[in-house]
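TASK: fixed-backbone design
INPUT:
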């Protein structure tokens, strides 16, 4: 299935890889049959690397995600990581995968450019980077005149003091070209300005819209070829070439540095973006042009309002049916909606009734149930035989900070592996009940699933603590899960005792 046939909605694992924490990623992995599932040409591991979430990438890698699988113009997540701050993230580099000399040079150049422009922000302003022309040529192409009789210091400090702001730009020469700037408005990154400046060359503009964020536009030889772009955004697209994929990764969070790199000019200091510029120019604007621009703006605004209203109506029609289906035919409370990823496991595993029952408990009861579940998970895993584990359970009951190795997720993960010395010799406790069928077809290593229960049970939000600890306990009990469910209902859910 090609990208054009795929859903625009990012899958849960891809989304968590970019925006959540390792615990949430691990929780989704346990319910995801394929950690290397593709969406719009990339895997969840790719999303984690692109977003700079090394800890999430490590969890995916340790769960079997392939870092060297080519995607996105031939780049793999592992090869992309070689260009970033964690080149050793995936261990030994296979033959033929190392960065080329040109790619290494691009990495070094990006770091210099980012350092030069550190602290610069396009917010509420616009900038255009143009390759191969100087300030005088930019003035000629724009048909602009030198600005006279204006307090340019005030123009930089408070551009909104000037009624004719939209006709004023600054131009500064930099190695390889020049930068056109308009502090306080969008025109320097508009298609009209970029097209005039790009004849025979390339120009790239970025404007910082206070409402919609940074927006980019690309003009080549007098023609606008890209608009509504997102310079510095943590993403690349299936039709990007290899150079653009690398550029998108190197300049995540650095829209102005990306603007320079995409067009070609290499700023050696920040003055082109902070001022004062080499030249202050006044752009020409005849009455017809002004009237056309105002008419176009009104038409765009009218069309945008109509589109927003259409989407709102569609969403209103679609949302109730979708929500009922996702929540098993029941309307969730606002508190349950807020759970987000924390609720997915219970819903998808058929425990929706318990989720609603958890929500109905008082916070103190939710906390008690979470602590009880953590103790049950440790007991069936045999961990409660170990002093360091009992110390954590006791601290949990008292509401004290958890001791090592539970003080941070990173230190705890080192104790999870089935062959780790810290859990060697731990055996399953005996339960006087007939086992069910293991969920995954084979017995689980209970200590690995039990350990996170203490960390989750200590979450500041008692409902999140209960839901996440339930997931851990159910996974730990596995073939004895019916026994756990019966005990849970009897002890903590009045009126829901098993028949």
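OUTPUT:
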């Amino acid at each position: 299935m090609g990208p054009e046939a795929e859903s625009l909605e990012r899958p849960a694992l891809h989304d968590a890889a970019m925006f959540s924490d390792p615990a949430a990623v691990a929780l989704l992995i346990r319910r995801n049959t394929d950690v290397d599932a593709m969406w719009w040409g990339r895997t969840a591991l790719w999303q984690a690397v692109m977003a700079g979430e090394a800890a999430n990438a490590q969890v995916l890698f340790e769960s079997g995600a392939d870092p060297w699988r080519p995607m996105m113009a031939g780049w793999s997540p592992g090869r992309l990581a070689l260009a970033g701050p964690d080149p050793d993230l995936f261990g030994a580099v296979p033959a033929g995968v190392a960065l080329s000399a040109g790619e290494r040079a691009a990495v070094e150049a990006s770091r210099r450019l980012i350092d030069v422009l550190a602290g610069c922000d396009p917010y509420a302003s616009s900038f255009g980077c143009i390759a191969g022309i100087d300030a005088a040529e930019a003035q000629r192409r724009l048909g602009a005149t030198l600005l006279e009789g204006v307090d340019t210091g005030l123009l930089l400090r408070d551009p909104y003091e000037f009624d004719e702001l939209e006709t004023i730009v600054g131009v500064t020469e930099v190695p390889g070209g020049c930068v056109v700037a308009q502090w306080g408005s969008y025109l320097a990154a508009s298609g009209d300005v970029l097209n005039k400046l790009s004849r025979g060359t390339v120009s790239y503009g970025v404007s910082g819209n206070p409402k919609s964020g940074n927006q980019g536009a690309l003009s080549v030889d007098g023609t606008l070829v890209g608009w509504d772009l997102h310079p510095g955004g943590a993403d690349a697209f299936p039709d990007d070439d290899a150079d653009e994929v690398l550029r998108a990764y190197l300049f995540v969070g650095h829209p102005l540095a990306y603007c320079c790199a995409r067009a070609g000019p290499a700023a050696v200091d920040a003055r082109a973006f902070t001022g004062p510029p080499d030249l202050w120019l006044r752009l020409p604007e005849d009455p017809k042009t002004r009237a056309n621009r105002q008419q176009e703006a009104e038409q765009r605004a009218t069309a945008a309002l109509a589109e927003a209203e259409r989407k709102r109506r569609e969403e209103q029609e679609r949302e109730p049916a979708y929500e009922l289906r996702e929540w098993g035919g029941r309307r969730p409370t606002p508190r349950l909606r807020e759970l987000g990823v924390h609720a997915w496991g219970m819903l998808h595993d058929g425990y929706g009734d318990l989720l609603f029952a958890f929500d109905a408990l008082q916070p103190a009861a939710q906390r008690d149930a979470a602590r009880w579940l953590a103790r049950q998970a440790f007991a069936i895993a045999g961990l409660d035989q170990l002093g360091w584990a009992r110390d954590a359970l006791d601290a949990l009951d008292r509401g004290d900070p958890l001791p090592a190795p539970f003080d941070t997720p990173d230190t705890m993960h080192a104790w999870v592996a089935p062959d780790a010395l810290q859990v060697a010799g731990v055996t399953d406790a005996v339960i006087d009940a007939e086992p069910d069928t293991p969920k995954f077809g084979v017995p689980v290593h209970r200590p690995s699933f039990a350990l996170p229960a203490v960390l989750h049970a200590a979450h500041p939000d008692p409902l999140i603590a209960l839901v996440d600890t339930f997931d851990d306990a159910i996974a730990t009990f596995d073939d004895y899960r019916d026994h756990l469910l019966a005990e849970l209902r009897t002890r903590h859910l009045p009126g829901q005792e098993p028949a």
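COMMENT: Residues 335-492 form one domain.
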